[in-house]
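Subgroup meeting minutes
Present: P.N., E.W., G.H.
Scribe: E.W.

1. P.N. recapped why we're keeping a running log of single-chain structure predictions: easier to compare across weeks, and new members can see raw inputs and outputs side by side.
2. G.H. added today's entry (116 aa).
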Amino acid sequence: MRRAVLATERYFAEHHAKLVNVEALARRLGVAYSHFRRAFLAHTGFPAWKYVVHLRLTQARRFLVGSDATLDDIAARLGFSSGFHFSAAFKQRYGVYPARWRRKMQAGGGRANPPA
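Output recorded in log:
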């Protein structure tokens, strides 16, 4: 099971912007989905889908600091369905909207990595 979880982490890191069917991925790795879900959560601290969102938001922080891309552009690059959904996920995770976080970082008024 550990091999499957580690393979999934690698897959997500390489494909976090794509829509992933976790049940099909578990099947492809030769493990039962129900066991896989529990093992993945125990290993990462996240359900599989939230892990993907975590990776997307981590990458979003890099885009926000390192580029002048619009929120819609960042959302599209990272697999969010819209800038609105990206902003809502960012706010839910970090307590501040991405545009405000970006302005704060550009002004030098905060850490580049909000609490996870």
